[in-house]
Amino acid sequence: MVFIMFSGEFIVDFNEYVGDFDLILTMNSGQTSQPPWKMDDNNYYEIILIDNIDVLVKISQEKLNDPLIVKYFSKEEFNVEKLRTKLFYIFDLDYNINEVYDFLEENSQLSDVYEFNRGLRLFKSQFPFECIISSICSANNSIKRWTKSLYDIRRFCGRSVVFGKDTYYVFPREEVFINMSLDELKNCGVGYRNKYMLNSTEKIRDSIDFHENIFKLSYKKAYNEIIKLEGVGPKVADCILLYGYNKHEAYPVDVWINRITTYLYFKNQKVSNGKISSFAHETFGMYAGYIQLYLFNYARLSGLMSKLKEI
Question: How many domains does the chain fold into?
């Protein structure tokens, strides 16, 4: 059978979104929404679903605020404007990032953070379920290990999509994922988290319109629902809400965010994760998610993380 390829290209210019955007910085920032997209020759590739049609996206940007070059390929015709809208959602390009910059400038403890994070935006998942599994997998795990596990799950039971000589894998839906055995998941490198993943998947499947309902809830109400999933503690819940459901108020607190926040605001005293979280919500408000992302990246690139290791 010969397929007639539906393909094309569009450009997203700097003046189409408010503030800065750095695709490479965003893609490689370790956000737990999903593994980084496949990279080849300075282009990123991923399968995006538009009205259940597989669309291969090839996206590139030379440097900060340069035009985003988006090329697309599909075996069926689809609504290109919906693809643009979905990409704006995934990279949070509809959000006025200048508000975050202004907040950083107005707070003396955060004044050095901007220069290390210019153009870094949220990298949100197109599939909330993948973000749930990814975030559970990331707990007490290295970025390298959890991203490999997600790739392995995609290859083992995800849907394969072939374009030319290349094969891409779409993360499995809940009804497919639930059929994986504990051993099969363990072979994907998730370890003891295999039970958490399957039990949480079962709970999601037992709920009517689970994802749609979480999107509609306020941050606090959504948090109270997500925390009920097995293997989901406060930090993982906030990761899921931030990257899977676009709740900007979420402030995931792990050991490093605890250390960074206490160093900047609590004179390096020992403070519980719960207190750090409450402080962040009260102090950072709607910018909490971005502040958390920026603080981690700032600590990593500025040398603060190395300094904290010695304290």
Answer: 3
